[in-house]
């Protein structure tokens, strides 16, 4: 199935594996919370056991270095796409309010980005992420 939109998560390449997984989880949650229409229906197995809903379209995962993440952020904002973001400072916090304070304390140009997620029209996402490769 071809979707009109694309969901992409960009993770900084030099993170520990647990950090990459953590960042991808938080950013995907940000997409689901901001775009409830992308969440599908509950699942149910053949025994009638019900399970939670998932995002109903693929999420593409890209790798990037710090400069590429900053460039993707600026490209997103220039195209009026509001991204979810995760900064290195957020690894030092323990709850959502502290995460927001960690981001608020730093000017955009100085954010130490480790992850970014966007959902927009396919062509717009392609322009935002131009030059990035899938995470390996």
From TrEMBL:
Superkingdom of this protein's organism: Bacteria
InterPro entries, per database record: DUF2000, Pep_tRNA_hydro_II_dom_sf
Stored Pfam families: DUF2000
Gene3D superfamilies attached to this UniProt entry: Bit1
Identification of the protein by name: DUF2000 family protein
